């Protein structure tokens, strides 16, 4: 029969067999739990609690009350520490929020900071400025760009209100006039009572709910781009018309002052001079051609005579007679 394995007592460290542990009520699971409490440094506290409970069972309820009081005090201290840590974390996060967005109690300021970020996400090429919102100006000034060219501005004013007021329109129109632009958007949490949807136009100002600021800006932007393109085309056409008008004016002046007749006479003189030079060139070429033809005939005759003389000489040398 194999010897039983020895195990250490978690309290005193003595070597014990499995049977001895079973007699003490310390099975494998209980022994493992006691060992875990010992490693965590909680074994002594657990034994103390067990002793107090046993004493309480032996008609000593004051120990149990003292234990509860002690435990309550410990829990209260731990709870107060946790609350203080939470308060510190909360103050830290609030400081970050205030530095980033301003006072979080001022929802309008948060809204002003959020609008340019939302618009930048849908149109990264444009620029959005909120500096004037702190100096009694519009909340957002949008600079519209195409191919690195500034085409114009769109002014945006936001209102976090519970009741609509027509004074908002006059306010943003002043900002539009100051920025020299025809495009303004009033983003509001409360629409006018006569508005049939989330957007409307009042006195040239596009009024829209804050949740729909992105499509409202894209609409105003495309309108601005199209307007600028039409203006450029109109300016080009006007320049062409001015050039044509200038030509007509100069032509009328030339006719009225007799300059046109002078021009026509000069052109006729040049034409006759050209014709004369052409005729002279034609005669010269004809004479030259005839001279070349005569020279060619002379050369041909001399070649024929030379050949005949050469053949005759060869016949004489060879004694050939006809």
Overview of this structure, please?
Helices cover 64% and strands 13% of the residues. The chain has 322 residues and is α/β, with parallel strands linked by helices. A six-stranded mixed beta sheet has the order 3-4-5-6-8-7, with helices on both faces. It has a two-stranded antiparallel ribbon with strand order 1-2. The protein has eight helices and eight strands. Among the domains are: 35 residues, no CATH class; 120 residues, TBP-interacting protein, N-terminal domain (Trna Endonuclease, Chain: A, domain 1, 3-Layer(aba) Sandwich), CATH 3.40.1350.70; 65 residues. The longest helix has 60 residues.
The CATH topology annotation of the domain at 109-228 reads as Trna Endonuclease, Chain: A, domain 1
What would CATH call the homologous superfamily of the domain at 109-228? TBP-interacting protein, N-terminal domain
Class from secondary-structure proportions: alpha/beta
- Based on CA atoms alone, the radius of gyration comes out at 55 Å
* Lateral arrangement of strands in the main beta sheet: 3-4-5-6-8-7
Overall spatial form: elongated
Helix content: 55-70%
Low-pLDDT segments, ≥5 res: 1-6, 101-107
């Amino acid at each position: 029969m194999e010897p039983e394995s020895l195990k250490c007592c978690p309290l005193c460290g003595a070597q014990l067999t499995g049977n001895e542990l079973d007699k003490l009520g310390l099975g494998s699971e209980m022994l493992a739990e006691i060992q875990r409490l010992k490693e965590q440094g909680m074994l002594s506290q657990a034994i103390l609690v067990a002793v107090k409970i046993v004493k309480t069972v032996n008609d000593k309820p004051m120990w149990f009350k003292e234990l509860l009081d002690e435990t309550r005090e410990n829990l209260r201290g731990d709870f107060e520490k946790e609350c203080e840590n939470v308060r510190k974390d909360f103050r830290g996060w609030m400081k970050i929020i205030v530095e980033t967005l301003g006072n979080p109690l001022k929802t309008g300021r948060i809204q002003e900071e959020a609008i340019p970020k939302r618009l930048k996400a849908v149109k990264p090429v444009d620029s959005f400025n909120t500096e004037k919102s702190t100096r009694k100006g519009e909340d957002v000034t949008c600079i519209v760009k195409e191919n690195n060219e500034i085409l114009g501005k769109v002014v945006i004013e936001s209102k976090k209100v519970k009741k609509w007021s027509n004074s908002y329109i006059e306010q943003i129109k002043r900002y539009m006039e100051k920025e020299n632009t025809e495009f303004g958007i009033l983003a509001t949490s409360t629409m006018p009572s006569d508005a049939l949807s989330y957007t409307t136009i009042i006195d040239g100002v596009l009024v829209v709910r804050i949740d729909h600021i992105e499509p409202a800006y894209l609409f105003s932007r495309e309108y601005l781009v199209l307007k600028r393109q039409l203006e450029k085309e109109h300016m080009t056409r006007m320049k062409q018309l001015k050039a044509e008008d200038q030509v007509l004016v100069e032509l009328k002046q030339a006719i009225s002052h007799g300059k046109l007749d002078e021009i026509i006479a000069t052109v006729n003189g040049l034409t006759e001079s050209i014709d004369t030079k052409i005729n002279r060139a034609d005669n010269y070429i004809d004479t030259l051609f005839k001279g070349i033809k005569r020279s060619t005939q002379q050369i041909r005759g001399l070649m024929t005579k030379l050949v005949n003389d050469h053949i005759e000489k060869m016949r004489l040398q060879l004694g050939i007679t006809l």
